[in-house]
Amino acid sequence: MREYRPALSGKQMSPEGKMTAQVFLLVLGSALLTACANLMIRNGLVLAGGLGIQGDGLPGLVLRLARQWTFVLGLLAYALAALVWFRVLSVAEVSTGYPILVGLTFVMVSVGAVLWFRESISFLKVAGVAVILVGIMLVVKA
């Protein structure tokens, strides 16, 4: 029985199935957009008073969120990140691209949360981020 391998458009993957620099840059771009989206949405939610429905009901919640430009930009960043990710899915192995996307996004959100929201970071968190970065390098080289 023949192994299933989807047809990939263009020459984005090497014959050995390794990720090319171009595809890695797309994954990196999607991760950056996703991380920015998470941070902007969090900022917008905090400024809007959270996600709870108050006396003004669901329409009031939607209006409060729509007034927060960081929330709206975060939604747009998520949409753009999805489009970039769809391109990656069309040319790369998901078993390689997805772990890199998630790992990079985790690292970027962690750093962004410390810088933007002044969240604390312990030695164990730093060690965990370092382990994730090593794992990303291994997946890229695999």
Structural account:
The chain has one domain (21-141). The chain has 142 residues and is mainly alpha-helical. 21% of the residues are buried. The longest helix has 27 residues, at 21-47. The protein is flat and about 55 Å long. It is 73% helix and 0% strand. The mean pLDDT is 87.
Task: Give the helices and strands, then pairings.
Layout: H1 21-47, H2 57-66, H3 69-91, H4 94-117, H5 123-141
Question: What's the shape?
Answer: flat
Overall number of domains: 1
Average of pLDDT: 87
Note the total helix count.
5
> Largest sheet, described in full?
none
Unreliable runs, pLDDT <50, ≥5 residues? Answer: none
Measured by DSSP, the beta-strand proportion falls in: under 5%
Q: What is the element string, with H for helices and E for strands?
A: HHHHH
Q: Kindly provide the radius of gyration, computed on alpha-carbon positions and rounded to a whole number of angstroms.
A: 19 Å
Q: Please count the beta strands (DSSP E, at least 2 residues each).
A: 0
Q: How much helix is in the residues?
A: over 70%
Distance between the termini: 25 Å
Output the keywords:
142 residues; mainly alpha; 5 helices; 73% helix; flat
Summarize this structure briefly.
The protein has about 140 residues and is mostly helical.
